[in-house]
Amino acid sequence: MSALLLPGLLFCLGAYFILAIVYSPERKWFFQVSLPVLAYLSLIFSGMFVASSRDVDLMPEHLVHFPKIKTI
């Protein structure tokens, strides 16, 4: 799930920087609220993404459960 959210949050952060270039003073409150929220969410989900990718790399056997086959 976090693998899908991280690119979306990075896209929103990029959109923020584009909007900041065409900044207008009447939308000042939008930039003051949106930047901390986007930064906070991107940090949370990038941390989740790194943790989940490390988890898959280190111990993949607990994520994939193969059926136990009984031998005679």
Looking at the structure, what is the overall shape? rod-shaped
Helix/strand-derived class? mainly alpha
Distance separating the two termini: 41 Å
Major beta sheet summary: none
- Unreliable stretches (pLDDT < 50, length at least 5) are none
SSE ordering: HH
Strand content: under 5%
Radius of gyration: 20 Å
- What count of helical segments does DSSP give? 2
Transmembrane segments: 30-51
Keywords: Membrane, Transmembrane, Transmembrane helix
Please explain how this structure is put together.
The protein has 2 helices and no strands. The protein has one domain. Helix 1 runs antiparallel to helix 2 (28-58). The chain has 72 residues and is mainly alpha-helical.
Task: Give the gist of this structure.
The chain has about 70 residues and is mainly α. The chain is built from two helices and no strands.
